Amino acid sequence: MKIGRRKLTTQNIILFILALLLMVGGLTYYTIYRTVAKSVSHMYEPLDRDFKSQNVVNKHEPISILLLGVDERPGDKGRTDSMIVLTVNPITKKSTMVSIPRDTSVFMQSKNTNIKINSAYTYKGIEGSVKTVEQFLNIPIHYYIKVNMEGFKDIVDAIGGITVNNEFPFTLEGVYIPKGKQHIDGKVALKYARMRKEDPRGDLGRQQRQREIINQIIYEGTKLNSLKNYQGILAALEDNIQTNLTMDKMIDIQNSYKEAVKNIKQLEIKGEDKRINNLWYHVVTDETRNQLSKKLRKQLNLKT
Predict the structure, then answer these.
(1) What is the Rg, in whole angstroms, of the alpha carbon atoms belonging to the chain?
(2) What letter does residue 8 receive in the DSSP assignment?
(3) Phi-psi label, residue 202: left if phi above 0, alpha if psi -120 to 50, beta otherwise
(4) Helix, strand, or coil here: 62?
(5) How far is CA 23 from the centre of its chain?
(6) Per-residue pLDDT tens for 173-187?
(7) CATH assignment, 14-299
(8) DSSP 8-state class, residue 11
(9) What does residue 294 show for φ and ψ, rounded to 5 degrees?
(10) Which residues pair with 165 in a beta bridge?
(11) Which residues pair with 55 in a beta bridge?
(12) What phi and psi values does residue 257 have, to the nearest 5 degrees?
């Protein structure tokens, strides 16, 4: 994957590409299809298991997607700033979106010790993050989409901004965001997605705003007028997204799963913040984790 112009963030922007394919027809459709296919080929980065055909999902079966917002800087491999598991069931036409707090204490098999879940990426990259989330939630992760946090402002600007409803006013890094419903650009959206210290709910509040942004990006991205800048959007995506979704699978998702994506239930992972060995962790009880796992396994039509 190339890391170029600027870095992009967050998560379900790939659905914009799918919506793009749906909205155009004839020769225009073919022209855009070729452009999108070329961009997707640059984004494609399979997992080791993909080469062994261990990650095949048949059409119309439920799928899970791990969405990773990674904070990368020069000379630093980075950590996952946000982790969201999206499960989509085309039969029930329902989806779930689960935010995993980045300080969540998890056991990482390859390290044989407990770590903060955002460090799995630092140790073992995408492969490590996927395996650690699978073990933590006891579900398979079929696909992943990795994006870079900084560049997400480029996507928001490319689709003409998004509308959010801020619950309380705050200032982050010199950017003031008032209370209430407002249309914001990419620079403000990035601050809106990152603030947590002034939020009485801490990281849970930040996760809620990130999910709000995802939904708004999908909403704005599926409007017909967003097609005017599809080339600029694809350029930002190509530089900043890494995924094991193929073009064929993206089209399949758009055709078979689009109704389920319209009905997203948001779930939270509640736990207790504890100081362990001079570090703060978000500790989730086995009971809470098992209850969440059962919900997700049911959503994926797996035995509970």
Answers:
(1) 19
(2) B
(3) left
(4) coil
(5) 23
(6) 999 999 999 999 999
(7) 3.40.630.190
(8) S
(9) -65, -40
(10) 181
(11) none
(12) -115, 0
Element spanning 234, H or E? helix 230-240
Q: Looking at this protein, which amino acid is placed at residue 37?
A: A
Spatial distance between the Cα atoms of 266 and 193, rounded to a whole number of angstroms: 16
Name residue 200's amino acid.
P
Q: What angle do CA 243, 89, 289 make, to 5 degrees?
A: 80
Among 266, 232, 297, 300, CA closest to 13 = 232
Distance (Å, rounded) from C-alpha 29 to C-alpha 230?
12
pLDDT tens column, 224-274: 555 566 777 778 778 778 899 888 888 787 778 878 877 888 888 989 999
Neighbours of 91 (CB within 10 A): 10
Distance from C-alpha of 190 to C-alpha of 36, rounded to nearest angstrom? 25
Cα 156 to its chain centre, rounded Å, is 15
CB 149 within 8 A of CB 102: no
Q: Where are the domains of the chain?
A: 14-299
Q: What share of the chain is helix, strand, coil (3-state, %, to 5)?
A: 45, 25, 30
Q: Cα dist. 42→63, 227, 251 in Å?
A: 23, 21, 17
Taking only the tens place, the pLDDT of each residue in 93-110 is 999 989 899 899 999 988
CB contact at 8 A, 33 and 18: no
Token pair 């600029």 in the structure block, residue: 232
Give the H/E segment covering residue 19.
helix 14-23
**227 touches 234 (CB < 8 A):** no
Would you give the end-to-end CA distance of the chain in angstroms?
37
- Tokens 């997203």 appear where? 264
Pick the closest to residue 264 from 208, 202, 215 (CA basis): 215
